[in-house]
Amino acid sequence: MKKSLLILLINCFALLWGQSSFDYTRTWGTYYGPNLSIANGGGEGYFANYNSTLLIHGDNIYTHFMGKNLLNNTYANFSTSYYNQFITEGDLFDADEEKYEMQVVFNTTGEVEKSLYTPSDTTSFLFRIDQQGNRYYLDCNNNVIGTPNTWFATSPLQENNKINISLIKKNANNEILWRTFLPKNIANNFSLNQIRYIHNIKSCFDEEGNIYLASVTSVQNGISTSGAFQENFTPCDNNKNLFVVKLNPQGQLVWGTYIPTEYGFDIGYYDNGVYILHGKELDNSPIPLATSKTFQQEVAVSGIMKLNANTGERIWGTYYGTTETTGIGGITHKMNVNETGIYVFGNIYTSQSSTYFGTPNTHKPIGDAADIIIAKFNDRGQRIWGTYLGTPVGEWIDGNSVVGNKIFISGHTNSNDNISTLGAYQEEIPGGYYKDFFAELNGDNGQLKWCSYIGKISTPPGATKNFTEIKAINENTFYLIGKSENVDNIASAGAVQTQVFPEFNNTDRAFYIMRFDKEGLSTTETDALKDLVLYNNPNNGNFSIKGSVLQKRKSQMQIYDTSGRLVFSESLPKQPIHRFHLQNLLTQGHYLLKISQENEIIKTFKMLVN
């Protein structure tokens, strides 16, 4: 009897402490920008396509948002000086403009390096930033010409009352490198919000600077190439097929393929593989999208396909989902791929799918009626594990980020049941209808490590959806970026903007960004950087950088002039000292020399050339 009781107690303690405590600390957090108001079409005053207009790139965090109330076509009765206090450069605020978007660049210490307003006459918005700092824009304009020898130098669509969509690539100095048209258009009364959310265009890059695009189109020529998965367009009632293309750094088509489905949810690249998270195949599909010896051949509302990045040929395909066709039984619509596996994320909307998406010994093998679903697949299309996450009421996923075997997610819930774990950053349930949260899971086994709320106060409670994105830049650092009515417990002391002003009302939101770092690592990292030095300084353009940290990982050096223009960039192999002879490149003046590792700036030097 005593032995049985001891075993029971051990099991209870194991269950209670199965989750790890929250082992990160908030390094800083800040609000920024004007009090935001609700936009048209049920959208938010803060717009973001988080794989594009907001991303952590090197030392900078780029974000777009706006403070214009489009419902009544007026600004929120704030003065011109109120809006101008949030910008550092560019044109001042003009109340006669139809709308503005605000562009802000933060550095990794939470300071604003640059902020400016973009007026409404722009027809484009920032779409992606690659690892070289090149920026990609989607542009809606019929009065432009494509670059010769790019994929579509002229638009393949010429329809009345429609505006063609093109892709523009600019370098870090904002110079246009090329423009190519996409096989897509939009109604001539478009809004940029429609391009972001309705004209779903997914993209990713490889290490050589090629860009992969996935979206749907009615165009039947100029897309597919010989030897790719599907060379022919499949006719269907809506006359739409998913396409996937690879463009080289010059904007030229390398290969293209159709996929006989009307939905493309996400795209990812890893190790010469292009992964597509797609929808149900067309009824008259000439070929099944799933292949043998993968997890599931039975048709469902979503599936995963792997293509050869060199040729566009299919390597394998699998479905993932129940056999119902509406999506209410569960649909995966987000994906992340790295060296540890393929991770998919989504939601279920009925208790009838409470067992399909879970596997034994994960965080939650049995689901409720409206849970988040997460699964890991291997590189052969076999599921490793699957789990649900949520309370019996309702949870929805907003963002995801995977580094190594660490899975970070953000989401929101309308449940009053506490979803946080013991010792989390915030265990207290926020007020209001929707509550934001973020969590980490173990990628090896699908177990929850911790879960925390964000924000404490909502004024007044209302059925308004917040949105938080999570971005991990390495295993030790992640960011939360979003907008919320829950305005407490976000900004840190000494932040750029510790409060949102003026006071909130029931339609207001705050833009915020928070940085979290692993506990116990800052001292070690600081010590390792102490011997990273620049000499001589001042110099004549010839100099050296030296430090033991340079031989631990590959590094990147970038030099910027005082206008913020990138004047020199070079990858650094693992060695303790690097010498540079830039006397013929650098003129007299001040420069910023930045050293980064794993997409994060580790040290910045102010350098004088005389």
Average pLDDT figure: 82
- The number of helical runs is 4
As a percent range, the share of strand residues is 35-45%
Rg on CA atoms, Å: 25 Å
Major β-sheet profile: 4 strands, antiparallel
Biggest sheet, spatial arrangement of strands: 1-30-29-28
Backbone shape: globular
- Structural category is mainly beta
Pick out the low-confidence regions. Answer: 1-18, 37-62, 64-75, 522-527
Fraction of residues in H or I helices: under 10%
Instruction: Calculate the terminal CA-CA distance, rounded to whole Å.
Output: 84 Å
Secondary structure: number of strands = 37
Topology:
Layout: H1 2-16, E1 24-31, E2 55-57, E3 60-65, E4 68-69, E5 74-75, H2 80-84, E6 100-106, E7 112-119, E8 124-129, E9 135-140, E10 162-170, E11 176-187, H3 192-197, E12 202-205, E13 211-217, E14 241-247, E15 253-259, E16 264-270, E17 273-279, E18 302-308, E19 314-319, E20 331-338, E21 341-347, E22 372-377, E23 383-389, E24 395-403, E25 406-413, E26 435-442, E27 448-454, E28 467-474, E29 477-484, E30 510-518, H4 522-529, E31 533-535, E32 542-546, E33 555-561, E34 566-572, E35 577-581, E36 589-597, E37 600-609
Antiparallel strand pairs: 1-30, 2-3, 3-6, 4-5, 6-7, 8-9, 9-10, 10-11, 12-13, 13-14, 14-15, 16-17, 17-18, 18-19, 20-21, 21-22, 22-23, 24-25, 25-26, 26-27, 28-29, 29-30, 31-32, 32-35, 33-34, 33-36, 36-37
